[in-house]
Amino acid sequence: MKLSDSVSSLRGTNSKQRAILEVMGLTTVRDLIFHFPFRYEDFSVRIPLSRVEAGMDVTVVAKVERLASRRAFRRRLSLTEAFLSDGQGTIAAVWFNQPYLSKYVRVGETYRFAGKAVQTKYGLRLHNPVYGRESLGEAATIGPVSPFLPIYPSSAGLTQFVLRKLIRGCLSSVVDLRDHLPEGILDDYSLMSLPDALRSVHFPEIIDEQLSARRRLAFDELLRIQLAMGRTRRYRENRRAKTVPFGREAVLSFVESLPFKLTDDQRRAAWEAIRDMEKETPMNRLLDGDVGSGKTAVAALAAMNAAAAGHQTAIMAPTEILALQHYRTLSAMYAASGLKVALWTNSYHRTFADNEDRERRGKAESAALLSEIASSEIDVVVGTQALVEPSVRFASLVLVVVDEQHRFGVRIRQLLCDKGSIDGLEPHLLTMTATPIPRSLALAVYGDLDLSVLKEKPIGRQSIKTKVVSPRGRKAAYDSVRHELESGRQAFVVCPLIESSDMLGVTSVTEEYDRLIEEVFPDFKVGQLHGRLPAAEKEEIMQRFRSGEIKVLVATSVIEVGVDVPNATVMCIEGADRFGLAQLHQFRGRVGRGEHQSYCFLFPVNYGVAVRERLSAMEATDDGFVLAEKDLALRGPGDLLGVEQSGHLSDLRLASVADMDLVRDTRAAAQSILEIDPELDDHPALREFIGESVREAHLE
């Protein structure tokens, strides 16, 4: 039997079971032996039937005296009952809707049974116990040597008995299962061999044995990612980029012209980017900043350095709202230095030059703007995905900045970078995210990137007072919002949905908008903003909110990033329990940008203990990195990174990217292997193990 053999060739399954296996993704022998138990029933400690009491989780050894199947009275259930005896007492075992058990449980045989004892009007019963044959001379359900019964993820129609039988048969018969890890790695990190780990994770002799097995298998999962990223990084180091010298005079003059003082984190990150741009290897740096930490200023400094050398920068944002915000911010920053900035999206074509913001409407104006970009008259071009259109060409694109990079696919980022690839020289790449990423996750997912972290908040930025609001506390929260509005401030109200949904039971933008203007704030101007609105209408609404005409803006997560209204001091989040902590932190970051104290009110749909405990973290800290660590532990990497970036982590069955020690170990192991054998020519089994399953997510 080989790992690649189809499960259809295995004995002991019928066509229906094979169809279920295929639906579960278990189509080969390899799939089966890497289908791991999610728990074990402990058969190692047994008690006599005479000591069994109601409510106990017990393991007993008993002989089946009688077996019967029947229909439950007035219920559409089939019952299989086994009457058990061990010489000291008796009890009945009952299974619901499992009539097939009569084929496997035989009268006169002795088995081990594990389950909960329940007191019924018919006496003491074991409800749905798991079982295994006690005779060591036969092929037992749980195996003759393992007192622990593995329980697997399964599906209706495929029993645990069949799964255990198939996996045991595969483990004992497969001939090409070999260990891909070098012996040195096994010794250095005290790891089990792969065959031993697979046997122990399925059928451990002692319970701690499966912990060691899981550590080895988890090590493999993370090592696979680290090796793929390490090879990607080495490949990138062999590519070439146009060197950009440090434009000291221009950069220092730009810093002095800013109306604020840079934080130490901003200075450090900007210097790291500028130093990267001096190298012949393309920069591939991720700028990870907490909400309001000033990532745009760092990007502006890098772009100024490129412009000082006569080159262009492209800045791509995921939404027109964010692109427009960047355009306005950069135009203000560059007003004193004279850099020319352009905005290119599907809805907006604008330029800022000589302190004049000019709309470029019509085909002729748009064509003229494209010509200015192509001739290098424009220094910095800000846009959305529209920047990758063939009509947009650059004369000397040396720096590409991708904001909220997790919202773009690899292909889109590559298309934009290709516009700066000339004569084998590639542009430098700076990607940015406003989602604080825990260190372990950064190493596991972005190990092929250089990382700059912004934690410091700009000088004068106040902490935002946050409160989780109970249903009874809603009126008091609205009174606080009203006080802010009457003081001339403004408020955001974020909802999970655009339109109402009875199935989800959460507040929508449309119904909340109607309720606020009719019942809560009828004397204040309320607006609504969501992704289905035309771009021109969205911009009009945002402009009215920025100007102060609209006092309360009801919106979806479209305002998660890129909205900067210093006069807004209140953030209300409906259905707060439907969002992760990282996203709630992003919403909260839309306020607290001015001189006045700001507030955030969280309104959960479910006000249960677990929800209050999770949301209380928002009250306790405004440190996005602390909240990201909690989010990672509670919700996994997908909530922090999005589907595009966390996709290859979906293959992690046993490993956790929150396990910092294991991430460090696998990173070190990958580096030690690649240092002596970068192409893995001397490790063919390891090269085959990596395969194509881990996409080179950052090979831009």
UniProtKB/TrEMBL annotation:
Q: InterPro entries under this entry?
A: DEAD/DEAH_box_helicase_dom (IPR011545), Helicase_ATP-bd (IPR014001), Helicase_C-like (IPR001650), NA-bd_OB-fold (IPR012340), P-loop_NTPase (IPR027417), RecG/Mfd (IPR047112), RecG_dom3_C (IPR045562), RecG_wedge (IPR033454)
Identify the CDD domains for this entry: RecG_wedge_OBF
What name goes with this protein?
A: Probable DNA 3'-5' helicase RecG
Highest taxon of source? Bacteria
What are the entry keywords? Answer: ATP-binding, DNA damage, DNA repair, DNA-binding, Helicase, Hydrolase, Nucleotide-binding
**SMART domains, A to Z:** DEXDc, HELICc
| NCBIfam families attached to this UniProt entry | PRK10917.1-3, PRK10917.2-2
All residue ranges annotated as the Helicase ATP-binding domain in the record: 276-454
- Report domain Helicase C-terminal positions: 477-633
Q: Gene3D superfamilies, alphabetically?
A: Nucleic acid-binding proteins, P-loop containing nucleotide triphosphate hydrolases
Q: Which GO terms describe its biological process?
A: DNA repair
Question: Coiled-coil segments, which residues?
Answer: none
